[in-house]
């Protein structure tokens, strides 16, 4: 029991987010090069420095595919450190803030809604990315959606995927082009911009 408790206290889930961002400019001729951001999300679920807190103990049955004590409907709030590497000693580059919930009664599935707030000096300081979706941790490849952003990442969309590994998950997010705003549509005589960029 003590080893289980200490394992829970010291457990830190690291999510490596390799973000590849492609944007479409408001004009056809001006395209930006893809931006690659590699971020590690440090999710500490207990003990000193805890960054994940269970808000709701799910009213549903215990999930048999997960560690004991995980129930259908469990909801967790996170305010996780984003760093440029696996070590906690590295300079923070932002925070991952949001929630995840146990979304299946039988499978190790989470429903995720997290905003990545970038705070490191540079062109993306103050920008955000919103990541959401169904995260089935038992699958060999997991996929989430990048559904938006603010600041320099305004209106970004796309998807992210991760191979299953322990204790670190390598996330590669490939957002598509920014969606056109109303003024861009009017300038283009109501022809929408393509959502699939021509970038490598």
TrEMBL record:
Record-linked Gene3D superfamilies: Allene oxide cyclase-like
Compartments reported by the entry: Secreted, Extracellular space, Apoplast
Signal peptide: 1-30
Statement: the UniProt record of this protein carries the keyword Secreted: yes
Subunit structure: Homodimer.
Superkingdom to which the source organism belongs: Eukaryota
Gene Ontology terms: biological process: phenylpropanoid biosynthetic process
Annotated function: Dirigent proteins impart stereoselectivity on the phenoxy radical-coupling reaction, yielding optically active lignans from two molecules of coniferyl alcohol in the biosynthesis of lignans, flavonolignans, and alkaloids and thus plays a central role in plant secondary metabolism.
Family listed: Belongs to the plant dirigent protein family.
Protein name in UniProt: Dirigent protein
One GO cellular component term: apoplast
Keyword annotations from UniProtKB, A to Z: Apoplast, Secreted, Signal
């Amino acid at each position: 029991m003590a080893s289980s408790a200490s394992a829970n206290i010291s457990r830190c889930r690291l999510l490596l987010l390799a973000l590849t961002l492609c944007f479409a400019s408001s004009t056809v001729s001006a395209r930006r090069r893809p931006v690659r951001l590699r971020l590690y999300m440090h999710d500490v679920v207990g003990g000193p420095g805890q960054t994940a807190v269970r808000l709701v103990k799910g009213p549903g049955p215990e999930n048999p595919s997960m560690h004991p004590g995980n129930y259908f409907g469990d909801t967790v709030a996170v305010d996780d450190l984003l760093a440029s590497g696996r070590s906690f000693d590295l300079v923070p580059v932002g925070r991952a803030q949001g929630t995840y919930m146990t979304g299946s009664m039988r499978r190790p599935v989470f429903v995720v809604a997290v905003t990545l707030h970038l705070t490191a000096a540079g062109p993306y300081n103050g920008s955000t990315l919103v990541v959401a979706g169904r995260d089935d941790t038992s699958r060999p490849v997991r996929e989430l959606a990048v559904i938006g952003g603010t600041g320099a990442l305004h209106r970004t969309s796309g998807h992210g995927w991760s191979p299953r590994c322990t204790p670190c998950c390598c996330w590669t997010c490939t957002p598509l082009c920014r969606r056109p705003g109303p003024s861009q549509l009017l300038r283009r005589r109501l022809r929408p911009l393509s959502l699939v960029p021509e970038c490598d």
